[in-house]
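Step 1: inspect the first sequence and its tokens.
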Amino acid sequence: MINKKTRQMIPLISLVLLLIFTFGANTVYAAGEPEPRDWEKLTTDGVLNEDATKSHYAVILDAHTGKVLYEENSNTKKFPASITKIMTGLLVAENADMDEYVQITDINITDGLAKMVGLAKGELITVRDLLYALMLESGNDAAVALAMHVGGSLQGFANMMNARAVEVGMIGTNYVNPHGLHDEQQFTTAMDMAILAYTAMKNEIFREVVGTYRHLPPTTNIHGAETTPWPEDIWENLNSLISERASDDYAFINNTKGNAIGIKTGYTTAAQATLVGAAQSKDGTQEVITVVLDDTKSGRWVDSTTMFMYAFEFYDTIDLVKLLISEETISTHVDNAKTSDTQDNLQMTVMPTSNAYITDTKDTIQAIFADLNRFNSVQNITTPLVAPIAIGQQVGTVEYFLDGGASPVLTCNLIAANVVEVLPEATPIPTVTPVALTPTATPENRIVGFIDNDKLIYVVIGITALLFVIIIIAMVSRNTKQKKQAAASRSRQSTSRNSDGARRGRGRRR
């Protein structure tokens, strides 16, 4: 039987048990397993309800395609706080040598509450280490140092920030400083920040830095020695979504849905809590970006996690390169090739010009997977395709279309995978042509014996002249012979007369 004192303790014991149960329930999800969401309450017809997040300035953006999966008041101008440093970090990654040293000058930040990593005047530190200080510890002194190094001045860097914002399509943003400390003229929108993150996460340097949990501060000419340690022994990412601590209730690491991979937090009194987050699905196929502005410090983690899980629960992504491109080659024929008797003498590999994805609701994606005949391809071979062709030479393109759409969902180059040599010219067989008295014209209007028509007249004249000379010589020779014969005849006649006279004289003397 329970005594009176014990009965009086029951409410207190019940309260303690309730607290233990609540604490225990929370610790179940503390190691990267957030509490499951009740999607029947949080969504309507597959669309996230506006009251599903504490922030009412939010965006979910697919990081592969740029498709907006959810938005609420996404174009309302708000103060950004330290998510400003996303633009600062991107410009540094795009324009600075990571291994170059920066000499710290006057930082000149008067806000006593501003987060600083402790850079000292005259300190020499690399751009890379400053970038980690900027994005992990949210060091405002690192922001100033990097801005001066890249932009030459704070105003010069602000001009770069605004110019880059226009380039990426941010239409509701204005920058006046590199760190995000409050200024009435510095503002942004949830959509603009999603667009910026979409661009920044494609930069490999930026992506690596914002996905890092811890970074060891360097030893410099001022800090690192035992006498002058850094204010923080370890620079640790302020983004609790990528925390590795099991005690952190908001870590989104090794979750059944995926993993957080970045990118930046922010807070000022005027802006309240801000967060731009990024996560990959468990299989690595999906990647999403989330933005919340004007949130609570704890609410930003919960809201971002809710949006991650919503995207992975209701949407899916097709990697078109993996789906459509195989390692097999495509064949075609080159007429004037050395191997022209081969039906397919050119083998071509398919090389995507860029990554390509389709992101849509799970039902839509499953329907595409169920009928891959919805894709058709169109080859555009270079015309005319003539030998010689070298390995690696682009010889055309192939485009893939879904459901006969007007625009291709994937474009690839066709690259020669083998050498195609040109067909050699046939060697002419020499022929012996008999000499003819009358030259015969060939199809090329040339006389047999290789005498051109324009030289024929000279040949005829020469032959005629030769014949004429021969005739003259013959006539002269004949004339001379006749004269000699006549002379000889006269000589014989004279001799005969003389003999007859002598005979007659001798007769008269007798």
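Step 2: inspect the second sequence and its tokens, then contrast the two.
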Amino acid sequence: MSILRPRPTDRPKERGQRRPKFFNRLLEHSLIRQVSFERYRRQVRHVYDGPQGAILAACSALSLHAPLGERLFQPGRFELHGARHILDVGSGAGQLVRHLLKRADAAAGITCVDLSPEMLRRARARLRSDRLRFFAADITQLPFADATFDCVTCGYVLEHVPDPALGLRELCRIMQPQARMLLLTTEDNMAGAWTSRLWRCQTYNRQVLYGICDEAGLKVRQELGFSPVHKALKAGGICAELVKHP
């Protein structure tokens, strides 16, 4: 989970959003649009550093995101074969990283980034692998050179970013030409509204967000899902493979 760092005078924006349905609007958490960025950032970090963050792995298991997540990396879906420099943004408790370790080539290096040092500590303890590097960093100020990575995974990070374009442009910057990204984020439906309430985040409209991705230099290659049922019902949020424009 990573959050952008706008200027002190900036207020959270609503790019990537469309007015949600009435009941979704009542349920969604509006903190990101109501308070200053610094206050929002402190509260979200408090959520992930505290007990809620400590049970994140259990929540992922109950929602089936953790046990079904490996399916995203099967042949014909988000391919990891051939990737040598993989970045996982918003590593959290290591839910996606666990699959990367299993599915990626043995020679691949995996870099884990999260805003919360406490979440990184939990991930390091769970995963215990010398193939991993850990960095506490902001999604819009990543400490890597241009065109460093040929593969990026970004799981449920963007909903904590007031303006997704800033985070997407920074991710595009550190990606090599034709590099691919697996993007997962919370959608503006009923399930997303409950997620918003629990994790203090916002939701995104699918087509509007894809347009912002394209403007940032990232084109949608295919939509994915944890299972055919998830994909048909648009459950599990927005899940797509993006490729950096040549």
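Step 3: confirm your contrast with the notes below.
The radius of gyration is 17 Å. The chain has a mean pLDDT of 80.
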